[in-house]
Write a structure and sequence with these properties.
The chain is α+β, with helices and mostly antiparallel strands. Helices cover 56% and strands 18% of the residues. A hairpin with a 3-residue loop joins strand 2 and strand 3. The longest helix is centred in the middle third of the chain and has 31 residues. It starts with a helix and ends in a 10-residue tail after the last helix.
Length: 214
């Protein structure tokens, strides 16, 4: 493959990695909003954290209103508070698996970046390393798809009581973007690499490998 192709792939994988890290850290995969009397409560659920924001409006003597705000985050899910030892045991196990799989995906994306940096050092390595890069990118994609599938199943089937009023947020959308882009990048590397092995100049450049014919 051309060095240019590897440079483009490097930045594409770097983008995927950044999106994955943001997605995993954001506490807003699912967002639930409630109106209780004079209070507006917003609860955001991330893969690792739950954040609750409360806004309470009270009438004031001068015909206006007083507003109190409270914001609190904690790890999610927790054994006692979220019923992980009782009725929500299956949910907590699945949610924890989603955390684990997304971290694995991040690891494979990072390994793909390392492979790209090592692979572009010589022409002989560039001819071979595309297979490793494509495999690592597709493994990253597979683990992000599993994470997306687990969270989607838990959300749609209301496996956690609070999810009945929840809607997808930025973290959920970013995860979907990462594995869709990762799939196209992985397939693009495979197509370009195979074309380079066959001697196509658009993929291999001016130093394309030409098999010796006897």
């Amino acid at each position: 493959m051309r060095k240019t192709s590897y440079v483009v792939t490097f930045f594409a994988v770097l983008l995927i990695l950044v999106i994955n890290i943001l997605s995993a850290r954001l506490p807003d995969w699912l967002i639930a909003r409630y109106d209780v009397l004079n209070a507006k409560i917003t609860i955001r659920y991330g893969l690792m954290e739950r954040c609750e924001r409360s806004v309470i409006e009270l009438p004031s003597p001068n015909k206006g209103h007083l507003e109190y705000k409270e914001h609190e985050c904690r790890p999610f899910p927790l054994r006692v508070q979220d019923g992980c030892e009782d009725e929500n045991r299956v949910f907590c196990a699945a949610w924890g698996s989603a955390q684990y799989f997304t971290e694995l995906g991040i690891g494979f994306a990072a390994m793909a970046l390392v492979a790209l940096l090592i692979g572009v050092s010589t022409h002989s390595r560039r001819r071979r390393v595309w297979r490793a890069v494509a495999g690592l990118v597709l493994l990253h994609t597979a683990f992000q798809v599993v994470t997306f599938g687990l969270v989607t199943d838990l959300y749609r089937k209301n496996r956690f009581p609070a999810f009945e009023h929840a809607k997808p947020g930025a973290g959920y959308v970013l995860n979907a973007v990462s594995w869709v882009v990762g799939l196209f990048v992985g397939l693009g590397v495979i197509v370009t690499g195979m074309a380079a092995d066959r001697g196509h100049k658009w993929a291999a450049g001016n130093r394309a490998y030409q098999p010796i014919r006897g």
